[in-house]
Amino acid sequence: MWYQLDPTNAHVAYVLVGTISLVFSLLSFVLRQQFYIGEAIFGTIFGCIIGPHALDWFNPSKWTSNVDELTFELSRLILVIQLFATGAELPPRYMLDHARSLNLVLFGAMVYGWLILSLIVWAVFHSIGLKFSDSLLVGATFVATDPVLAAAIVGKSKFAQRIRADVRNLIQAESGANDGLAFPFVTLSINLIINRPDNVHAGTIIKDWILLGILYQCALGVVLGVTLGWVGRKSYVMARANQWMDNESSLVFYVALSLIITGLASVLGCDDLLASFAAGCTFSWKGQLDFDLQPTTDEDADFESLKFSSIMDLLLNTAYFVYFGSIIPWPQFTPYAWKLVVLGIAFLLLARIPALLMLQYLAPDIRNWKDALFIGHFGPRGVGSIFCCLLAKHLLETRSHNVEEHETLLNVLWPVTTFIVVISVLVHGFSICCFTVYNKTIKVHITRQPTPITLETQTIPEEGTSIARRRMSKLRVTQPAVDDPSFPKHAYVSRSKVTLMNHKGDVLNEFEVKDSSVDCSSKLVAFREGNQIVIEDGGREMKRYDLEDLS
């Protein structure tokens, strides 16, 4: 009688992914701007609930006999689109102008993290037969930080606005570059595992690794990415200048170029992740070209243009982390329970923070130990680690002449990598929320204490008069990395008004100071909170400006 009710796995998946995307969209402002929780942690928790180990509504193992291949290609798709967007959103010529800081953080943190985590993996798992060369491969899966999770820090949220532009850009550039640069660590580890038992000379292994892993895969990948990025930019600019492309088609360009890059790179056997990031950097080398959906009517003129990259990232990332939550191998964690806990703690404390604390004296963009600690902590592992893990399994199974010899490594590789990703999603996903709550608590405590005013005072004329003058506190506003004439240089604060002025002395904005006598429900007001100027509209925070020279 009810034969028409025959839902397939795909139908159920559509409903579930659509539901979680819809719920997150409805609550996105609250989750992102007030609780600072991104789609990754939200999707992962939902995926765990509907996955095979709970409700069993979303089970990828029922879709295909090769879940690893499906996960591998989904991870590749997410990464190439995200990496292109990451490179395209960097400031012009960033990779060249900040090469010293980026290279120190990039290679210093990667090599240190690889070696220290590999050593800890070997120390914890050698009792079950894991060799040190095997642990190098496991450690190689943790080398790459994740651009998807890092977007929660460098994205356009209120929290991101409180971070200096050079720190944000450094985190963004590192998360984009090191996904592709994880390839050499994986291939070197594979070469050691496969060739050393056959007594292949170490020089031969290193030579093959340099020629294939470094020069062919990475260097050719960069050349291919730069070439396609340059051609893509020229084509896009020419088409828009001659009005050959409408807004809708320009949105397709974003995804199409990413797919072309990964397709060609995969066909040639080079590093498609590095090629995608290089293409994105080249695309924005002479200035960013945003894939915007511009307002088309006068009624919409006051609304901010929609960033298509952000829309695509939200949709794809939510779907992917729902999928990831459903494939987490919870039963495989049980045999290694205490080992995984020890490794997880070591990962959070030792994987990056010590290296960044040492590099703070050499990297110009890291000004003090607070910057080093912040950058060191926010090195989340996610899609890139999953991709490297499945790549390592594929290379090991296809290149080894005796796969049975590596049974222990194959049994350990997947649960260890996924456990670290789960830890990273949870800890880094909630770090911003905890940091913000703590920071607000400290500020509230400080503002209740009477403090002497030690600021330089200036007098500026009231608007419309040349005689009347009033005393105001002159505060210097922290400037962005890129000169912006519309950005305020100084903030003048009196008892009744906050005035923002540019470097020429022109008044940019003027607000009433928020206090009990001002109706804050219907207009813009401003007030000073600690070392920041806060702008509110109808009781909702709209903007923050960091202040300098407050000592």
TrEMBL record:
This is Cation/H+ exchanger transmembrane domain-containing protein. The keyword Ubl conjugation does not apply. It comes from Ogataea philodendri. Its main location: membrane. Keywords: Antiport, Ion transport, Membrane, Sodium, Sodium transport, Transmembrane, Transmembrane helix, Transport. It is found in: Membrane. Belongs to the fungal Na(+)/H(+) exchanger family. One of its GO terms (molecular function) is sodium:proton antiporter activity.
